Amino acid sequence: MIPELIRREIHIAAPRDRVWTVLTEADHLAAWFTFDGAEIDLRPGGALVLRWKEHGAFHGVVEAVEQPHRLAFRWALLPDVPAGEGNATLVEFTLVPDREGTRVQVVERGFRELAGSDEERSRHVRDNEQGWEGGFAGLRDYVESRTA
């Protein structure tokens, strides 16, 4: 059975405002996550593009911006196509002050509604699980190295 969502959570030893900046500014996104560029119009309805040389450009739409604690966007799971029904998932970050830093959670949902076979949907889940594992490690390392 295809999981409906992926959930990951980490603790970052940095203030929530700093983590928010790193999650929402294109230059920072390119440094820890996309590596080959990013564009983000940080407002509901704003465009989002995340680029990886080896994977392509992934297009999305910002759904919610509640600074400094919630960011949500819908993104296409195939390169070079606009996010739309049957090809996109919803990604939601929440940031909560926690001890001497920030607890960051990402939830990506909508895998069951994707067009395609069960095998294709399962591959998207596996790929994105791996992506968030590496991405969250990169996020923590990047933020903590900049605040040390």
TrEMBL record:
InterPro entries: ASHA1/2-like_C, START-like_dom_sf. Residues 13-144 form the Activator of Hsp90 ATPase homologue 1/2-like C-terminal domain. Pfam families: AHSA1 (PF08327). Belongs to the AHA1 family. This is Activator of Hsp90 ATPase homologue 1/2-like C-terminal domain-containing protein. It comes from Actinoalloteichus hoggarensis. The lineage of its organism: Bacteria, Bacillati, Actinomycetota, Actinomycetes, Pseudonocardiales.
